[in-house]
Write a structure and sequence with these properties.
- With about 220 residues, the protein is of the alpha+beta class.
- It is built from four helices and eight strands.
- It folds into two domains: about 1-110, no CATH class; about 115-220, Immunoglobulins (Immunoglobulin-like), CATH 2.60.40.10.
- It is about 40% helix and about 25% strand.
- The chain is elongated and about 115 Å long.
């Protein structure tokens, strides 16, 4: 295709109209015969008919698509309403749901992968020491309790404490609570300032523990 001819149809249509009009008015000056000028005019007429048919069809198609989309929205509203009523009936059977192609409840609980809790990251934590107690925040976002719900894999968090700082071995940690929501207030009732360390781990719904968090150590005043 010659480089001077615009590629987009709309631009070509505008360009061709100007081209044809100039040829028709100046064919002799351009060294063309009347028959050649007529060839250009005929080509322009044929093009315009073909192009206008496409434009009309395209506009009609777009209008049809908009109507179709609107009717589908209307249909889905009705479908959801009717399906909601069907699903709410105690008498509705799973076979009927299958024939309708709607959601069939999962009657067999999916087995919980025993390794999944071990692969899940440990709880994050934020410990705020006070007088004779420590406020423990734990979960995926302990700094914002509005977005700190436990992950789906976990039913609770286990909390362990060690007085005097991080112990040298595992036996130095003492289990103090298993709780399903943050925060937890650990009341120590100490009569003198003490150093306390905590660590946390998720527990899945079958009671299997996950990995421990890094310990955190704070000073609790009397």
């Amino acid at each position: 295709m010659p480089y001077y001819i615009p590629a987009p149809d709309e631009a070509f249509d505008t360009w061709f109209a100007a081209y044809q009009q100039y040829v028709a008015a100046n064919f002799a000056a351009l060294g063309l015969t009347p028959a050649e000028a007529l060839d250009v005019q005929t080509a322009k007429i044929n093009w315009s008919l073909g192009y206008s048919n496409v434009v009309v069809t395209k506009n009609a198609y777009q209008a049809a698509v908009e109507v179709k989309d609107e009717k589908r929205e209307d249909a889905e509203i009705v479908i959801r309403r009717i399906t909601g009523k069907i699903q709410a009936r105690p008498e509705t059977t799973d076979a009927q749901r299958e024939f309708l192609g709607i959601t069939v409840p999962d009657r067999i609980p999916t087995p919980l992968d025993p390794e999944k809790i071990l692969l899940h990251p440990a709880p994050l934590h934020l410990v705020k020491p006070g007088r004779g107690q420590a406020e423990l925040h734990f979960g995926p976002d302990p700094g914002n309790e509005n977005s700190n719900a436990l992950p789906d894999i976990a039913r609770a968090v286990r909390i362990f404490r060690a007085l005097g700082g991080v112990p040298e071995n595992v036996s130095g940690w003492v289990f103090i609570a298993e709780i399903s929501h943050s925060p937890y207030v650990d009341v120590l009732g100490n009569s003198a300032p003490i150093t306390v360390s905590y660590r946390f781990q998720y527990v899945d719904r079958l009671g299997r523990p996950g990995q421990f968090s890094d310990p955190v150590t704070v000073a609790v005043s009397a």
